[in-house]
């Protein structure tokens, strides 16, 4: 009769040391792995994606501030006539020559601006589109003034214009030109959500941006309070104000004129910190004036009043 199956005994080993335990694996697993990375540093975390998106946006703003390209033959010629500070004129290879292109090249050479011929594809990439008409002018970044330096430099009754909610660079350029024409001392714009002194603003200002200072304010409300602390009267332009241009005397004191956009007007906090809200009398059927036009009307009247007191 066959014997029942029996499991063979385990062979004894001659391994030295402890025969029980995890062999140190558990102890190694309990070791610290260092500080937990921030959420924005973990590639799988939503905070990391938000950080990257913000960096891209910041980089885009920096690039726009560093280099501004004016394109199109007429705009380039206008900028050159206005003596906008430029770094180089680029002409696409194979571009058909005409009087405007020849004039742009001649103006650049007379001012010592380098002229470079580049492939059309390169100019497309530099300008961001193919609507450049074969020509592009790279202008230098505008050097903004400091608001507090401007206050300290003004002697006598200063006159400034503060722009609120103005996003069209053509409006900014037109205001700069008007402030210069009527003896103003400078223009203040918000640091964010505002038109900047780009090639379009340069062109609209007809070159006056080269001589009239423009300053950026990090906080517009705080800046207005600083003006008030330094003896300025702050006049906000808005429909339905308690004063009109016909009844207000703007010749006595240093003055800051706050101009809002035609659509949004002056923002609430800025309006609350104005000393006076003033409107411009117009025909009943006209709803409002363009921001740059409104600024020009008020600046002209204030300049007239100041001339009359001399």
UniProtKB/TrEMBL annotation:
Biased composition (Basic and acidic residues): 1-12
Gene it is expressed from: rlmB
Keywords: Methyltransferase, Transferase
The protein's name in its UniProt record: 23S rRNA (Guanosine(2251)-2'-O)-methyltransferase RlmB
Keyword field contains Transferase: yes
Record keyword Transferase present: yes
Region (Disordered): 1-64
Record's compositionally biased regions (Basic residues): 45-54
PANTHER family in alphabetical order: 23S RRNA (GUANOSINE-2'-O-)-METHYLTRANSFERASE RLMB
Annotated family: Belongs to the class IV-like SAM-binding methyltransferase superfamily. RNA methyltransferase TrmH family.
Residue ranges of every copy of the RNA 2-O ribose methyltransferase substrate binding domain listed in the record: 69-145
